Amino acid sequence: MDNQLETILLEHIELRDVQDESALIPQLAKYMYITHKINLSATNHEFGMVPFFRGQSDEAWTVNPSVFRDGHLNYEHELIHDAIRKSPNELAKGLTNFERLTKLQHYGLPTRLLDVTENPLVALYFACEHNPDRDAAVYITHAYPCDPASKPVQLLSLIAHLNINGISLRELWLELEKGHINLSMAAMEQGSPLADELISMVGRNYFVSPNLDNSRIKHQQGAFLLCGCIKPVLRDSVWDTLFEKTQENLLEEFTHKIVIPSALKPEILRELDQYNFNEASMYPELDHQMNYIAHKRLQPPILFHQPDLDSEPDVDREIDFTAPDTIDISPERPEEFTKHQAEVPMELHGIISGYVSDPTTADAVYQIFSKNANIDWPVRKQLQAVISRDIGRYLREIGYRQTMDECSDIAKLIVDAAVRVSAGAGFAG
Questions:
Q1: Tens-digit pLDDT profile for residues 11-63
Q2: Which of 27, 189, 341, 382 lies 20 to 30 angstroms, CA to CA, from 254?
Q3: Closest CA to 307 of 18, 26, 33
Q4: Are residues 252 and 136 in the same domain?
Q5: CB of 284 within 8 A of CB of 156?
Q6: The domain containing residue 420 runs over which residues?
């Protein structure tokens, strides 16, 4: 698949933030908006094609199956045979070659399977789950899913069990016949075009929707990208073609990449938890359930905007997904918030000027405080975080510093100093 990967930075999608303590709803809304637009605009999106997503917690990582790492590919068949010898009751009887690969993948053995999912929120969870200091990525594509019983899946699953480096097409054909994959011996003798088809088949990658007979796969709406990783070395006779295992970056199998800045990971995880996308739902095993329970109470609460329950719902309002990327998803600033809004003491202007020398920029930062400050903002950590975020974004937009991290550092210094000044003035009252 020769795709030109389109990269999208989540933070740069312009959606107006809700005007309260929570910056969480907009970030998740942005993500779902992006994935929805990709689904609608996929140029090769035809009937029967399925969106597949892969979340990686470090955006710098390549997109590769685990067997590509640490030289495992050359010993792939030995890894599988060793595993079978260690646990024959679990891995030998009653399993197809593909089912065996999925089980080995589940228990951490390096395989040629790459985990993907059909649910964009599952991919987002895995992107944000680890590496809190690294930007993450979610990769997206559309493809026709293969059935586990299809011939390409059978072929590649069996090849994973074989030592094929340096063997000829004739020898591979015989090995596949031994593995009960009917390729027709007569076709081999006749030099059939099926030989060319086989060469092409083992060199491709396939998205596979497995049977949902595994609780983790079911919970994660999991699927796999089954890698061919087979390179033919052509000879004068097609039947003398030699094969060797090779590696490739599977990035080309995906059409879009959404980058999630590391600073957004904690808030995205907390909001995903509200929709039951968390460690307990992704990993049904008991140890993960207990770990989730143990750490749940350590998370700060999310303060969502409370709608006016006495008002009539706006049932006719719809989001136009064909419109530009800037859309309004936020409610009006609630009256109870405005009512308790407080004036920001002018002393803060001097504090801001100590960090931002340009008077116009200092005035703008002061206005950010004025817009967000309610009567107890100096003791509201989440609201302070919102103010700090808005200041950092503004400084980055005007090019005050080269990177977002630099702007965020200045914003935090300003807010911390402002908290001290406001508390000393009795503003927190």
A1: 777 654 444 444 434 578 889 989 988 887 765 556 678 999 999 999 999 99
A2: 27
A3: 18
A4: yes
A5: no
A6: 335-424
